[in-house]
Amino acid sequence: MPVGSIPVLLIEDTPSLARVYAEFLKKDSHTVIAVETGAEAMEQLKDGAPKVVLLDLQLPDMNGMEVLRRIAAQALPCAVIVITAHGSVNAAVEAMRYGAYDFLVKPFSADRLVITVRNAVERLRLAQIVDTFGKELGRGRYHGFIGSSLTMQAVYRIVDSAASSRATVFITGESGTGKEVCAEAIHRQSQRAAKPFVAINCGAIPKDLMESEIFGHMKGSFTGAVADREGAAARADGGTLFLDEICELAPDLQTKLLRFIQTGTYTPVGGSKLEKVDLRIVCATNRDPLREVEEGRFREDLYYRLHVIPIHLPPLREREDDVLDIARHYLAEFAAEEHKGFTQFSPEAEQTLRHYHWPGNVRQLQNVVRIVAVLHDGDTVRLDMLPAPLGLPGAVPVPPTAVAALPSPVPAAPAPRLPAPLTPETIKPLWEVEKDAIEDAIAACDGNIPRAAALLQISASTIYRKRLAWQAEGKL
């Protein structure tokens, strides 16, 4: 896509500055539309076409923040770059909460302006590719999944391909990412869709009852077995058996499951007759199965029998704007259920939902929206309605049981580094200390430079400028 194919809307009421900015951008092959008021800007944005917006906060007819709020409220496909003076950096940081892409502090160089606009154009271009790709495939929703991100499109394609096969599917992913939804999608997309889908959570059933749950038992085979009982394998005959948290299976049962997969036959607990079934096995875990094998907790031969078609479900934090689509879906559902009037999230609430790291994934998001629907009312979910740790200080916390635990393979947080005694040999140059602090902050914020800048209490433009300088000097 050519650089100039996404125009730049310049909202600046000082004609001399507008001319200078426009010349800088035209030299870089950008198409520039210059206006002086917020009303003119909104008129230009009515067509809904993607634009990079250069927005001065001080306008003659309205505050630039109001323009930004309207862009966010109407979900216009814009990347907004706020232009601000040194004295109003705090206002620019506030603008980031309303969805601004970046900000420039006056005075700025031509190179700084051009690089920022180029980055904004590239962001819009990638967003268009994602939107077009999702629309072409019609995959905003798919068998219980909600989301059109590229990572989920890949999952949908694997499910499509795997569904027609008889091969065993092994689903991995953090808690709350939708592993059972994925298993049901495979079943519903397959030729077995008209037959039963039977799910068993191997971590929720006592180990001494697990064999009976899968293979059934005969009357009198153990205390409490007052009648013959079919197991999940018999109930799933012709359909799909889903074994969630497969790594929780006891070693002796792993041996029996391996034999069952190899032969398709089993003997109920306390029985003597060999039973045969035709079913497909889909299993899942939130652990690292290879590590379980390496540490001797899971049979290697069973792993390779099960791990035929792997599907990894991405965590919610890697699914781009899917979080907003999912949140809106649950808001409509829970508002109707609780007889509340909610219809939307405020721009600040949407920004918070988008940038939160979601350790409990979709399950945690579902609980957050339910708490809002139960405890509040209105037509718009505001930032102060979101429970802690998302909302403002003093917000109602999410109960511990509402947040799914992180999966076991996630490494523990590193112990804090204790400063070593300084010697002349260990003293670092000041620029290197500063660089380490900035890069560590960016990494902690998952690459979100504006968020890292806000936490460091500096401007995002300062980070961009310093990183460019370090790169030019070969220090990055």
UniProtKB/TrEMBL annotation:
It comes from Azospirillum doebereinerae. The lineage of its organism: Bacteria, Pseudomonadati, Pseudomonadota, Alphaproteobacteria, Rhodospirillales. One of its GO terms (molecular function) is ATP binding. This is Sigma-54-dependent Fis family transcriptional regulator. Gene3D superfamilies: 1.10.8.60, 3.40.50.2300, Homeodomain-like, P-loop containing nucleotide triphosphate hydrolases. The keyword ATP-binding applies. The modification 4-aspartylphosphate is found at D56. One of its GO terms (biological process) is phosphorelay signal transduction system. Residues 7-121 form the Response regulatory domain. The keyword Cell division does not apply. InterPro entries: AAA+_ATPase, AAA_lid_NorR, CheY-like_superfamily, Homeodomain-like_sf, HTH_Fis, P-loop_NTPase, Sig_transdc_resp-reg_receiver, Sigma_54_int. Residues 145-374 form the Sigma-54 factor interaction domain.
